[in-house]
Amino acid sequence: MRSMIVLLCGTLLGACTLVAAAASAPSSLPATSIYRIPPLTLMNQNGQTFTFASLAGKPRLLGMFYASCQMACPVEIETLKQVEHQVVKAGGQPIPVLLVTFDPAHDDLAALKKAAAQHHVSAPEFQLSRALSGDIGMLGGVLGVSWRPLPGGGFQHNVVVALLDRAGRIIATDPANGRADPAFVAAIVREERAAH
Amino acid sequence: MLRALMGLLLLAALMPRPAPADAAAPRFVTVPGGQLVSSLLDGTRTVTVQMAPFAMLEEPVTEAQFAAFLRAHPEWQRGHIAVLFAGPNYLASWLTPTDPGDAQAARRPVTDVSWFAARAYCDSLQAELPSWYQWEYAAAASSSNRDARANMARRNAILAALMHVTGQRPGLIGQRPANVYGLRDLNRLIWEWVSDYGAMFPDVNGDVGSAGSGSVLRLCGGAALAFRDPSDYALAERVAALSMLAPADSSPFVGFRCVRKPGDSP
Fold first, then answer.
1. Interface predicted TM-score of the whole assembly (ipTM), two decimals
2. Which residues in B lie closer than 8 A to residue A19 (C-beta atoms)?
C-alpha cells in the first residue's frame, strides 16, 4: 500500500503541518468500505503479517472470535465451514475467511495455530488472526461485534460474520450460530460470481 | 529599529489566529484500584469487580479540545469523516467543521460525537474510552465518599439534574465540586460513551444484542431486572440512552472522557 506524506506550509512563517494520508485507506475505496478503519496490522496462524486494508480486492467473510472461547466461537468457525461447503454445493467457489481475535492478550501465535489445527482450517483460505497494532475496537464497531471481559475470565460477546464485497462494503451478515443460512450462502455465491 | 518592529508586528498580524476558545491541555488524574459491586447484574447474579488503578480525564472532553483534535486530524471533521463512522448529526450544530461557534467552548463538554470519533480522540492521547466498570467505579464517588451510590438525596439530585438538562444544550463544566478522586461532572451534565457499551445489554438468551437496537427498552421488564437496584432511575436512564445508539450515532447529550494506565505522563 502506498503511503503519502504531504507537507503543508503556511505563508511567511513556514509553519508546517505534516499530513500523513492514512496509508491503509486509499481514497478509491467507497465511503462505506470497512477497509477505511484506521490502520490495523494483523498476523495470521502462520505468523504472516499483513495490513487489514491490503485485503481489499476480493470478496471475503469477516468476523471476530477468541481462541479460549468454549461455545460461540467454535460454533462460529464450524458454521463458516458449513457455509463454504454449501457455497461449493451451489456451484460457487469458496471465498476467503478472516477472523480477528478480540483477546490479543491471550491469543498469541501458538494459540492461533492451536485453534486452526483443532478446526482443520488453514491460511490463506481461512485465517485466524490477531492485531499487532491498531484498534480492533474500530473493527468491532463497524462489524457490529461487541465484547466485554467478564471478571471471572472469558467475554460477554456477540457473533456477526459479514460478507464483504471486494471494496469492503458489507453485503450481508450472519450470526453464524450453527446453521448455514441459504440466503447467506446465496449472497456469497452471487458476490463471488460478480467479482469475476 | 522601528522598521524591524513594524515588520514583526506585521508578521504577528499575519500569523494564524488561535482558535476562538483556547483548549486547555487534557488532564488525567489517578483513580486508585479497589472493589466495585456493579449496578449491572450478570443475568441475576451480582458482579464484583477488582478494579486496577487507572488514570482518567479530570473533566469530559470540551468542545475546544475536540476542535483542536479536528484541526490536527481532518479525517474526523464533519464532511470528511467516512459515513461508516458518523451519521448526519455528527457535530451538525457546529458553525464550521472545526469551530463549535460557542463562546464557552473551552468549558462546554463536546457532544454530538460518534463512538468512533470519541475513540479516535482518546487514541490521539495514547488513551482509550473507559470501560463501563471504570466509568461506574469513578462515578460512584462523591466529594466525600468513594461509593456514594446509596445516598438517596444524591441520587435524586442527579436524576433532577438530568431531567433539567433534557432538551437543552449541556451546561458548563466545573460548576460543582470534584469527587474524591478529583474528577468532575461524571453524573449530572451529560451521558458518556464507554468502550464496551455495545456489550452491556445481554438479551434473554444471555447473548449480546447489537448496539443501537434499544433492546434494553424492548425488554423493559427484563432490563429492570438487570439492575441491582431497579430504583436507581438515573443509572437506568443512562444505560437506556446509550443502548439506543449505534456506534456511528451521535446525541446532543452524549460526550466522553478518556482513560489510560496510571503514571503515563503528563
1. 0.76
2. 74
